[in-house]
Amino acid sequence: MKDYAEYVSRAHPDRLGDQIVERLVDIAMERDERAFAQFECALFKDECYLTGRIAAGKGEDPLPPSLVGSAVRETFREAGFGKECPPDPGSVRIIDRIQRDPLEEEEKESRPYADDQCVVVGYAEGTGETSYMPLAHYLANYLGRRLEEKFRLSPLGPDFKLLAVLEEEGWGKLILSAQERGQSSSRTNLELAYQAVQEALRSLPGGRMDALKELPLSRFFFNRGMPFREGGPYGDNGLSGKKLAVDFYGPGVPLGGGAICGKDFWKPDVAGSFAARREAIRLLKETGAWSVLLKASYCPGERKPVALSCEMMDEFGTKAAIPSERIGPSALDIKKTAERLLSRKARKLDLLKRGYFFADVNI
User: Fold this and answer.
1) Cα separation, 359 vs 216, whole angstroms
2) CA distance 254 to 122
3) Whole-number mean pLDDT of the chain?
4) Where do runs of H (alpha helix) occur along the chain?
5) How far apart are CA 278 and CA 282, in angstroms?
């Protein structure tokens, strides 16, 4: 049986959009912890189009244009773009169509309650060595984040995607599509990419991943399509909120609600998603199951789910329902979850909100 998952680098245009709207959420939360913040971003070449709404504070602009400009340009810069790899952050044209409102007292008091209906999914499997994630999904993220570091000092990247395909005995394929900068040959870039992958794999933890620490060259596929010279928004247009399977648990697990990037922590599809993930891990440890899949539904005006279901599966593939009384309803409370997420001021932007899903292991 094959298992597979994808990683999309921070310089990919969709991921650039995600990081930009996440920076705007950071600004909103710093100015008012109960701010309403929901943003969207579209990118094409050197243009950045922003929409959405922020409601925060009173009597002042809750999102000054100067902060928006610095957030956009710093995101491009940190992703690896510059004069040698366009667009140059300083030349990006920002079209700001964000609606800005004061946060009225009535809206402020209603923030701990769901403002929309949604369905969220929490999933956990295996052990802590893969952060209770599907093995291929963990591996794709592990490799992708290390390749981002390595490609900063090479003719490769910053825009790339990889697809990890695993079989029962180990590697099926690793497919890497990476931007090739400069004048180095494709053969040289293939060798650089393969070496970077091998170095990253050797640092994998042991246990389940022992058989994956060496990737045969015959199973490595690099830039098999057309030459990949132009990357980021010069190679493709980008939209925030498109990489949902990457954000959650990979292609083998239901997605549940909508996107999590670009929304404040009080949103039910954000708070609910992280609460469900945390509770799934707790139930996995408590039951001794191999995997736990939890689904929760929220509706407007409620802090806790109005519907719940949960099932576990053992290592032999046998499924069983987990009684609702074993699921902690307070653990899925929007208010408690939002406050817990807000308390983590030191979160790193390059991990986005999805970094919380890997919080159990220093990925």
Assistant:
1) 31
2) 9
3) 90
4) 13-31, 65-79, 105-109, 135-151, 186-202, 244-247, 268-287, 334-342
5) 6
Residues near 127 by beta carbon (within 8 Å), at least 6 away in sequence: 207, 208
Please give the radius of gyration of the chain, using alpha carbons only, rounded to the nearest integer: 21
Encoded tokens for 341: 């997420």
124: helix, strand or coil: strand
Q: Distance (Å, rounded) from C-alpha 92 to C-alpha 94?
A: 6
Provide the whole-model pTM: 0.93
- The model's pLDDT over 94-119, given as tens digits with 9 standing for 90+, comes to 999 999 999 999 999 999 999 999 99
| Mean pLDDT lowest among 258-262, 276-280, 293-297 | 258-262
Residue for token digits 């802590």?
A: 128
- Ramachandran assignment for 361, one of left (phi > 0), alpha (psi -120 to 50 degrees), beta (any other): beta
- Rounded CA-CA distance 219/336 in Å is 46
